[in-house]
Every structure is written in structure tokens, then in C-alpha cells.
């Protein structure tokens, strides 16, 4: 145990070292750092081949790039979306799988069940429809707070799943098959066998979502969300239209969830109501909380962990869930605010733009 | 101080179930004055505030601000129409930095929303810069700009009190309502606060002040309104109110044999 503790301490000091060095780098150096990191992420399917440390990330029993796309990318996207709702605006949503299902079902219905539009055309439709569902759910329910909101959203997730199971129009419990795939471009073939193109597409979507959410966080909108999370009444008395911004948080969260669902449907080609159980909502929430609720990068890390850990321990067969559970408990004991806790943004939004640095008195 | 009525608190009655917190209270606030609202604990001072800022809907009566009835408006609309407040028990956004706290207030006057933030339009960037500059200016005015990028929860008590005032001022109010701003202050800090309230008034704000501390109220207020058990029992210049027998009775009690 003390050895583990030492290792932990060493890791911590290593991370501060890296941070210090990173801050002392020049712009060009940092830029090239970013480029290398992005490149490394796109090359992730080959990580298990790295001598020495490859075995650490490899997932025995499942193809690594399948895990990357079907698990990791999906969970990261979903965690990013849910983090807006739970982490930023502080609204506990236990039915997030509903939006994920809506995204997947829109793709299913429009590319296979009732029309045969191309996947790429349906993708934005799926996002918009999910967003609408966010607004439809949010309008009556966002007057509720805390536990009450959690219970209503829990119901929403179930309503979506049970509706899908009972509506023939949505394929009932048979589900929808032959769902359209993303269009192949040149050597990038979106087929059944190779999951890598899907992973690259998904990773690109992640970057896009991160970019957009980053812009929102660093604006009046992000401040309004945080203020609502910290003290909703005070926020409203400071002129924040709390209902409007909570609804926006729900809509944006739902849109990202729908995007994840659409990506998932395009990859697996078959969806059924059983793909969207309540348990998935709980895992999504676990990803956000584990990674660090309110910190976008924490949510990403949480998504990776929740998606990848169970696959990593697949050769523990039926004990893998136990190992996964223990890992979650340990993280919560040692890092109660998540792996990457949210930080107070010490960097002022536009330090250079004004005389913000003068010191009074 | 002018004779123009900024806020007209019209025969307001506020009942919670069987409890009458305010009964038929009328108060006029004139533009440019500092009005002190005093009374013993439980007299209904904070309830008065809560009715003015839309936290409660009055059972009867109305609140007219700048000539328009604001009784039915939502809280954020009341703020946007020009009334801002601080809280008796500090309610900052504790995990946000001091400057971000103030920026939330400044954002009340801004319009850019999700699409503008996503596209980072010229208008949106200009608004962000405006919010930031205005917030830093207010932190400077309050004398707390040296801790602008600290989390609000890490600020000392006196800073937190002043940060609340800065945040309220950032909403560009015409009427600033301060709910016991001197609570927990030592005499030196109270003196500073008095000066600060004068500075705020001199900048063109009208101030409504709830305060227990007589050294603050009597020194700062142009006029004083006294509440007791939800009723207005006196109104006038500080010197008049001070010698009013009803007020003395309310604060010190009436001897049994005199009652």
C-alpha cells in the first residue's frame, strides 16, 4: 500500500513538472506539442503495438480499435454533452440515454426504416431533433430542482426506451437494421470490418464538440451556467434569465448526446431498444463524475476510463465488473472531485486586452 | 435628492399562510437619496426587499418603479429594469473568480447568446471586453481589484461583502438595495463602508439600505423608514426618527406599567 502511495506521489510530482515545463515553453513549441498530441490520438489504433507499454492499453479479447470507437468515442462524446448539463449548469439528468437513443433512432428511421437518406444528411437532422427533445423535456421540467429533476429525467429515459419497444413505426423490439453508414471517401472505407475510419470520424467529432463547448464556456453563456450551478436564486436576481439558460444547457447537452447516438447507429448498423438501458444513463453519469464534473477535460478522461477499463479487464471474465467497480470506488475515495477536478479559471478572459492587472489601494 | 419618485411601494401586504409579514406598508424612494430601512429583528425589512426584487409576489398592493408596475415581472426582469440587491447572508458564486462574479452582473445588460458565442462574433467579443472592463473598474472602485482572479470563496469576509456590492452595481441599477452590508464589520470597516455608500450615491445611484447598525444608518441616510411587526411606524429625517417615542419603544420595549 505504501508503495502504491509512493508511486501516486511520484506521478503527481511528475504532472506538476510537466505543467511547469509546459508553461515555460514558447508558442511555437506549444503549437508543435498540440500537433503531436493530435497526431498521436489519430494514431491511437496502433498504440497496442508500441513496444514496452502497448500491453498496458491493449484490450485482450476485443480488437483495440473497436473499443476505441464503439466504447471510448461514444462515452467521450456523451460525457462531454452530459457535462454541460450536470457539470456546468448543475442539473442532475438521469435519463441522458434518452437523447442518445433519439439520435440513434433518427438515423435509423431516416436511413433505413422509413427513408433512405444518406447518413451525412441525416446527421444534422439527428442533432437538431435531439435538441428539440431536450427542449420538449426541459420546458415543463426545468421548473423543478435537484432530486425532483433527477427523477423526472429518469422517467424520460425510460419513456424513450419503452416507446421504441412498443411502436411498430420504430421497429418495436425487433429494432432497426441496415442503417446507413457514413460515406466512404477515397481510401477511407466505412464498412463492416475496419473500425478505424469510424474512430477517426468520431475523434474529429470530439474535436469539433470540444471546440464549440470551449467557446460557450468562455462566454456569457458559460458564466450564466456556472452562476446557476452555484446559486440559482442569486443568479436570477443578478439578471440571469435562469430558465432560458437552463433550457439551453439541456438543448446543447441533448444535441451532443444525439450526435453520439447518430455516430453509434452509423457504425453498428443495427439498433434495438435493448441498446439503450437505464444502466447506460448511470454509466454516462459515472463517467462525468469520475472524470471531474464541470471540467470538460475531466469528463473526457472519465469517458475514456468508464469505456476502456471494463474492456481492459475482459480476461478477468465475470470478475471484470467487480474490478471496474473497485476502480470507481478507489477513484471516488482518493479523488472525490473526480480525476481532473474543476478549476477556478484563474486566467482572466482577456488579460491582455485591458488594464486588468492594476492593483488597487 | 430630487422630488422624483423612483420607487413607489404601494400599500403592500405580504402574508405567508397565517403570518402577516408586511401589512399595508407604503414607502416612496426618491431618486438620488439614501433611504435607511430599520427595525428590530423580524420587523419585515428583508421581506420588503424580497417583494421589491420579485422574490415574493405581494398578497396585496403593488410596486411601481420608474413609473411602471413591476409587481408581476420575473426576478431577472426586475434586475434588468434597474433594481439590484445584495444579500444579508453573502450569496456569491463561490467557485467563480471575483471578476467573473461581477461579470455575471454585467452580463445582465448584454444580449449575445449561444449562436454569438459559438461564432465568436464581433459584437460578442466587444460585449465580453465591455463586461470585463466594467467589472475590473467596479472592483477598483470597491478597492478589491487586487484579488480579482481569486475564487470568491477564498476572499476574506470584508472583500466578499464588497464583492457583492460590486456585482450588484455591475447590473447598472438605478436603485441599489443593500441588505445589512455592515454585518460583521468592525468600526473602522464600518467607517469605510459609510464612505463607500456616499461614493456610490455620488455616482448617481439611489440607495436603499437595510441596517441594524445605527452608526451606519444614522450617519449615511437622508431619510429613515422604521418598520415594526410588519407595519411602518415612523418615517423622516434620522434626527426625527431617533427621538420618535414609537421607535424608542420598538427598539427598547415599553415598561409594563406604562403599557
Description:
The complex is a heterodimer of chains A (361) and B (259). Chain A is built from 14 helices and no strands. Chain A is globular and about 60 Å long. Chain A is 67% helix and 0% strand. Chain A has helices at residues 2-24, 27-42, 54-57, 64-88, 97-113, 119-141, 146-166, 196-217, 220-230, 232-237, 242-268, 278-291, 296-312, 320-334. Chain B is an alpha/beta fold. Chain B has a single domain, classed as Rossmann fold (3-Layer(aba) Sandwich), CATH 3.40.50. Chain B is built from ten helices and ten strands. Chain B is globular and about 75 Å long. Classes of the chains: A mainly alpha (361), B alpha/beta (259).
By DSSP (H or I, 4+ residues per run), the number of helices of chain A equals 14
CATH topology of chain B: Rossmann fold
Beta-strand percentage range of chain B: 15-25%
- Provide the structure class of chain A: mainly alpha
Name the poorly predicted regions of chain B: none
Distance between the termini of chain B: 39 Å
Calculate Rg of chain B over CA atoms: 19 Å
Question: What general form of chain B does the structure show?
Answer: globular
Which geometry of chain A do the CA atoms define? globular
For this structure, what is the CATH homologous superfamily of chain B? P-loop containing nucleotide triphosphate hydrolases
Share in helix of chain A: 55-70%
Named CATH architecture of chain B: 3-Layer(aba) Sandwich
Q: Care to count the β-strands of chain A? A: 0
SSE blueprint and pairings:
The complex is a heterodimer of chains A (361) and B (259).
Chain A: H1 2-24, H2 27-42, H3 54-57, H4 64-88, H5 97-113, H6 119-141, H7 146-166, H8 196-217, H9 220-230, H10 232-237, H11 242-268, H12 278-291, H13 296-312, H14 320-334
Helix pairs in contact in A: 4-8, 4-11, 4-12, 4-13, 5-6, 5-7, 5-11, 6-11, 9-11, 12-13, 13-14
Chain B: E1 5-16, E2 19-30, E3 34-38, H1 45-52, E4 60-65, E5 68-69, H2 75-81, E6 83-85, H3 98-107, H4 114-119, H5 122-142, H6 157-170, E7 175-179, H7 187-202, E8 206-210, H8 214-220, E9 223-228, E10 231-236, H9 238-242, H10 245-252
Parallel strand pairs in B: 3-8, 3-9, 6-7, 7-8
Antiparallel strand pairs in B: 1-2, 1-4, 4-5, 9-10
Helix pairs in contact in B: 3-5, 3-6, 5-6, 7-8
Amino acid at each position: 500500500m505504501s508503495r502504491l502511495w509512493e508511486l501516486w506521489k511520484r506521478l503527481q510530482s511528475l504532472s506538476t513538472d510537466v505543467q511547469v515545463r509546459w508553461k515555460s515553453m514558447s508558442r511555437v513549441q506549444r503549437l508543435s506539442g498540440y500537433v503531436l498530441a493530435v497526431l498521436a490520438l489519430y494514431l491511437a489504433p496502433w498504440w497496442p503495438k508500441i513496444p514496452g507499454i502497448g500491453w498496458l492499453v491493449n484490450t485482450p479479447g476485443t480488437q483495440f480499435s473497436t473499443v476505441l470507437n464503439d466504447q471510448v468515442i461514444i462515452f467521450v462524446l456523451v460525457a462531454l454533452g452530459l457535462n454541460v448539463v450536470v457539470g456546468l449548469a448543475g442539473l442532475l439528468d438521469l435519463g441522458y440515454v434518452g437523447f442518445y437513443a433519439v439520435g440513434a433512432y433518427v438515423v435509423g428511421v431516416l436511413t433505413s426504416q422509413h427513408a433512405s437518406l444518406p447518413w451525412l444528411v441525416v446527421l444534422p437532422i439527428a442533432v437538431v431533433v435531439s435538441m428539440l427533445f431536450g427542449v420538449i423535456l426541459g420546458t415543463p421540467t426545468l421548473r423543478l430542482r435537484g432530486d425532483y429533476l433527477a427523477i423526472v429525467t429518469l422517467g424520460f429515459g425510460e419513456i424513450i426506451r419503452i416507446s421504441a419497444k412498443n411502436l411498430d413505426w420504430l421497429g418495436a423490439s425487433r429494432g432497426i437494421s441496415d442503417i446507413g453508414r457514413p460515406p466512404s471517401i477515397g481510401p477511407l472505407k466505412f464498412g463492416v470490418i475496419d473500425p478505424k475510419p469510424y474512430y477517426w470520424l468520431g475523434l474529429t467529432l470530439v474535436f469539433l464538440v470540444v471546440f464549440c463547448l470551449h467557446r460557450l464556456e468562455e462566454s456569457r453563456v458559460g458564466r450564466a451556467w456556472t452562476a446557476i450551478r452555484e446559486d440559482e436564486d442569486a443568479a436570477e436576481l443578478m439578471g440571469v434569465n435562469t430558465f432560458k439558460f437552463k433550457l439551453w444547457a439541456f438543448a446543447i447537452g441533448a444535441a451532443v448526446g444525439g450526435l453520439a447516438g447518430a455516430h453509434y447507429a452509423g457504425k453498428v448498423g443495427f439498433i434495438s431498444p435493448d441498446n439503450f438501458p437505464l444502466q447506460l444513463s448511470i454509466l454516462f453519469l459515472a463517467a462525468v463524475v469520475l472524470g471531474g464534473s464541470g471540467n470538460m477535460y475531466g469528463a473526457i478522461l472519465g469517458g475514456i476510463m468508464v469505456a476502456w477499463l471494463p474492456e481492459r479487464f475482459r480476461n478477468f471474465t465475470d470478475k471484470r465488473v467487480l474490478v471496474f467497480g473497485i476502480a470507481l470506488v478507489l477513484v471516488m475515495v482518493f479523488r472525490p472531485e473526480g480525476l481532473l477536478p474543476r478549476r477556478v479559471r484563474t486566467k482572466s478572459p482577456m488579460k491582455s486586452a485591458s488594464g486588468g492587472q492594476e492593483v488597487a489601494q | 435628492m430630487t422630488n422624483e419618485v423612483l420607487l413607489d411601494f404601494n400599500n403592500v401586504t405580504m402574508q405567508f399562510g397565517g403570518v402577516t409579514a408586511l401589512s399595508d406598508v407604503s414607502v416612496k424612494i426618491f431618486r438620488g437619496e439614501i433611504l435607511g430601512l430599520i427595525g428590530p429583528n423580524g420587523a419585515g425589512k428583508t421581506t420588503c426587499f424580497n417583494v421589491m426584487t420579485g422574490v415574493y409576489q405581494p398578497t396585496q398592493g403593488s410596486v411601481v418603479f420608474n413609473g411602471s408596475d413591476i409587481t408581476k415581472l420575473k426576478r431577472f426582469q426586475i434586475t434588468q429594469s434597474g433594481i439590484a440587491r445584495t444579500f444579508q447572508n453573502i450569496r456569491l458564486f463561490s467557485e467563480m473568480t471575483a471578476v467573473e462574479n461581477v461579470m455575471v452582473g454585467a452580463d445582465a445588460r448584454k444580449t449575445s447568446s449561444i449562436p454569438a458565442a459559438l461564432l465568436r462574433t464581433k459584437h460578442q467579443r466587444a460585449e465580453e471586453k465591455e463586461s470585463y472592463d466594467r467589472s475590473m473598474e467596479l472592483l477598483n472602485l470597491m478597492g478589491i481589484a487586487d484579488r480579482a482572479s481569486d475564487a470568491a470563496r477564498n476572499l476574506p469576509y470584508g472583500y466578499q461583502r464588497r464583492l457583492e456590492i460590486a456585482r450588484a452595481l455591475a447590473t447598472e441599477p438605478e436603485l441599489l438595495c443593500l441588505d445589512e452590508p455592515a454585518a460583521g464589520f468592525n468600526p473602522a470597516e464600518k467607517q469605510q463602508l459609510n464612505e463607500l455608500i456616499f461614493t456610490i450615491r455620488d455616482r448617481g445611484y439611489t440607495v436603499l439600505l437595510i441596517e441594524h447598525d445605527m452608526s451606519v444608518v444614522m450617519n449615511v441616510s437622508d431619510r429613515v423608514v422604521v418598520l415594526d411587526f410588519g407595519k411602518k411606524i415612523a418615517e423622516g429625517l434620522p434626527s426625527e426618527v431617533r427621538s420618535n417615542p414609537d421607535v424608542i419603544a420598538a427598539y427598547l420595549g415599553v415598561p409594563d406599567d406604562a403599557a
